[in-house]
Structures are given as structure tokens and as C-alpha cells.
Amino acid sequence: MLLDNKRIKIITGHYGSGKTEFACNYAIELAKNSKKNVVLADLDIVNPYFRSRERADFLKKYGITVVSGLLGNEASIDIPAIGGIYSSIMDSDTQLILDVGGDQAGARVLKQYTSYFDEKDSLLMAVINANRPGTADVDSAINHIRAIEYEAGMKVAGLINNTHFLRDTKPQVVLEGHKLVKKVSDKINVPILYATILREYADELAQVLDVPVMPIDLIMRDRWM
Amino acid sequence: MAKVLMKGNEAIGEAAMRAGLDAFFGYPITPQSELPEYLSREMPARGKVFVQAESEVAAINMIYGAAGAGARVMTSSSSPGIALKQEGITYIAGSELPCVICSVGRSGPGLGGIQPGQADYYQATKGGGNGDYHLLVYAPANIQEMCDMIMEAFDKADYYRNPVMILADGMIGQMMEPVEFKELKKEREVPAWATTGTEGKRAPNIINSLYLNPEDLEEHNIHLTKKYDEMKEKEEQWEEYNLENAEVICIAYGTTSRIVKNAIETLKDEGINVGLIRPKTLWPFPEKAFKEYPKTAKAILVVEMSTGQMITDVRAFNEGRLPVYFYGRSGGMIPTPEAVVAELRKIIEGGK
What we know:
The complex is a heterodimer of chains A (about 220) and B (about 350).
Chain A: E1 8-13, H1 19-33, E2 37-43, H2 56-60, E3 64-67, H3 86-90, E4 94-100, H4 103-107, H5 111-114, E5 122-128, H6 138-152, E6 158-161, H7 171-188, E7 192-198, H8 202-208, E8 213-216
Parallel strand pairs in A: 1-4, 1-5, 2-3, 2-4, 5-6, 6-7, 7-8
Chain B: E1 4-7, H1 8-18, E2 23-26, H2 34-45, E3 49-52, H3 56-68, E4 73-77, H4 79-84, H5 86-94, E5 99-107, E6 113-116, H6 121-125, E7 136-138, H7 143-160, E8 163-169, H8 170-174, E9 176-179, H9 214-234, E10 238-241, E11 248-251, H10 254-268, E12 274-279, E13 281-283, E14 299-304, H11 310-318, E15 324-328, H12 337-350
Helix pairs in contact in B: 1-2, 1-7, 3-5, 10-12
């Protein structure tokens, strides 16, 4: 089910769409199924908390290398200092996932890399959560995608339906969100690559949905949250 | 309205607008910058005022002016930024003006760090500015509760003519949760005391905290104290959780209370009963919750994201009845449920 024909996957979306949770889960799936190195680059320069670099040790257990700021994954700092990812962009033996910060502000960081991406080898994904006020209708969701594309200098080539209410996400929530994401997909002619849901409901959802279902374990959210 | 998923800081902004916010004055600081960012977009779009001031000091004085003119106003900041606002806050309290101040705490002292902290308990509840004044301080533990408290805060600020603070920590500001916004019950009228212009038809309204005659100033202080006494009588709020048959009573607020609840559930599965008193108002501190303990209680454990501040109030109202223990993390470190369980075990099993 993993689209591993593109070596570089770039994950963007609205603030709070669940990009990072998706990126971490995706990286783990990829690491389990790929013989190549898996590198997760945390390019989030807009959020101070809940960034994938916070889970670098956890992801290391799956053989995933997390790269982020020049000051290392531990530095808790909110300055736009990122680095150490060019080698992964160039290395054809690396599966690279770019976890990009929210909105067009977060996507701006991509511009420095786009000239190094081989179009045949890279895929820009947009994560959509229909329960987020900024992307709750077709037009605003498309506006978000266009704004991200403008900043990134690339076209979005795949959508992820990541509609959720955190731990309260039943299949019905994802199906409701799917109506919106489907309309967006039809209107801009970009395929839906996955729908996501908590692992316990993945089989149930897969039976009623016509796109691949990616099971999600809550990696970023501590159990008391 | 249906539930939506929002980041705490955005939700503060939306709740304040639903509560009829006329004007916001603020200055960005991590971890609350999404709040002014959200309002900078949404307030003008809804015909309201948003000003990014040149500093926290300027912002709080804009609040002072706009509140005096009768507007419903709010400012927000984080720990060192709230420190800068203290002069304005005591002026506003002294002049008896309503406003809401959101404090999204990070770790200190000084510039500290950008990870969450609860080391501003003293700053919020014991003043920070000069003089005999208090803020009514709410401490939300989740985003829905924070939104509900903000709606309430504006009304209480009007009723008491006093600044009201929402003390959240960075975790509440940054985390996402589903939330449902409530609509304002009735439109707010511009208060009669506001400086809206006399049009030559009435005596001027005066907004002032300067009293050069000591007798007048003492009278003013006595008047303020009566308001604070009324707050103590009417505004204490707290949650009791699993207190029945509790061997240990935990005291925690905000984010920390959620971690403690998780620890309580872990021990419950083993048949060990631990309870929680969660202050929802930090000033007035819920003194009434400490009147009577369950007979099974042998000790109190205070858990904070600080080196121990609320514990002084717990000790005061415990009045020496039970031994009071402390577990805290600071510097932006967040206590884990496992660590709280370990502390509780030490108390219960070790006869600490």
C-alpha cells in the first residue's frame, strides 16, 4: 500500500491537520517495508511543540533517522534554523520524508530545496482534516493547497484524508471528512492517496472506503492528553 | 455549533470574540503567538480592533485606556511578557477597570525557555504589581474548559470591575482538542462609568488610581477589599476526583492535573485509591475544598510544573492536619504519569 515509487515524500497541510502524526506513522510503515534508509526531516519552523524531532529516540528504534535543526533534535528553540538534509535529498539510497510546518508560512521553507528535487522522484502531499475550521469547506481547503503550492514552488500531487477528533475518531468521522476531501480531489484533479484512522478502526474503515487506509498510532500525543 | 478541532491559543481568540471582544492589544511571545496571529486575521475581518503594540508595556496601557473608554478588551502574553505588564495590571486594578489577561506560561526564571511551566503561580496569585490588589485567576485544564472560562471571565471582570486572568500553561496553549463554542447570552452595554464623553450633559467620569489624600486611599483600599472578600465568598471553583476512600489526596491544576488523573487511574486498577482536588480558580484559592478530608486520607501530594509554589497555599489551608509532600518538574520538563505513580507508591507503601 505504500507509494514507495517516489523517494522523497513531502508532507504539508494546515496547522493541526495532523501532518506530524501522519509523517511519523508513515515513516514507521516505510521503515518496516523498505530496504533503504529512512530519514524523517522535521522542517517545522512554525510550531514550538509537538514536532517530530521530539520523538527522534522513539523513531530510532525503527531505524529511522530524524534530522531537524542545526542545533540538534533536543534543542527547544523557536528560530527557523534547519539543516543537515541536503545529503538525504541527494542520496538515492535514502527514503526521505519531509515533515513540513503548517500553512504557507511553514511551507516557505521548502523553496530552498525544490530545485534539488527530481520531479520523477518526489511527491508533495497535502494532509486535510475536515474538522479544522480553516479547511472545513472545499474552497478554503483548496485555497490552503494553492497557498502551500505557491510557497513551495511545487504542485500537490496527492491528498491525505486525515479527518479526526483525536482519540474520539470513529469511522463515521473519517467518512464525513472523506466527502469533503473527495470534492477537493475531483475539483483540482489530485488523487486521494490515503485515509487515516486509529489502528483499532482501520479494518472497519477499509471495508467501506475506496482508498487505502493508513492505521495511526498516536505517537505525538502522550497518554494523558 | 458543531465541534471543531482547535489549538488552545486559537481557541482563546475564538472564545474571546464570541464573548464580544471589542479590542485586543498584545505582543507576540512563544508559546502564545498563535493567539495574536489568529486575532490579527479574525478581529479586523469581524470589524473589531487588533493592535500589535510595540511592547507588552504599551499593550497593557492600551488595555487600560480602552477599558476605561468602556470597550471589552483582552491582552495575552507568556511569563516574561506578563512580568512586563505588571505595572499596567496594578493600575487597572487600582482604577477598577474590567479586562481579561491570558497568561500562557513557559518556563523561567528570566527568559527561561519556551517549554511549558507553572512557575507563574505566585506572579498570578500574589501580585507582581504593587499594592493591595488581586486578580481573579482561572486555571483551565483543557481547551473546552478554557473557552468556557474565558466567556465567564469577561462577565466577572465587568461585575467586579477588576482584571481577570486566565492562567494556562504552554501545553494547553499548544495542544489541539475538540471544542464547541457557546454564544454570548446577551449583548454587553457600555458601562455607565466609562469615559465616553459627557456631551456637556453630565459630570465627567474619572478613571484614576492616584489618591494623594491617605484617608481617601485607605477608604479606596477598604472598598477594594470588600470586592475581594466577595470573590472569596462566591468565586472559588474546584473539581473533586476520586476522593471517596482516597488514601492520598493529590493537589494539581492545569496540565499537571491531567497527568495526575492518569496516575490515579493506573493505581485504581491495582485497587489503590488516590484522589485529586483540582483548583479551577487559583485566586481565590478553593479554601472550601480543604474544610473536610475523606477519613481514609493519610497524606497530601502537591504536583506542579515548578519547584513548588501552590504548595504554600495548600499548606496554609491544610493547617497542619495531613503531611504535605511535593513532586515537581521545572525548566519545561513535564511530569510523567509513571513518576507521579512512583511518588504515590513511596508515600503509600513506604510510609514516607
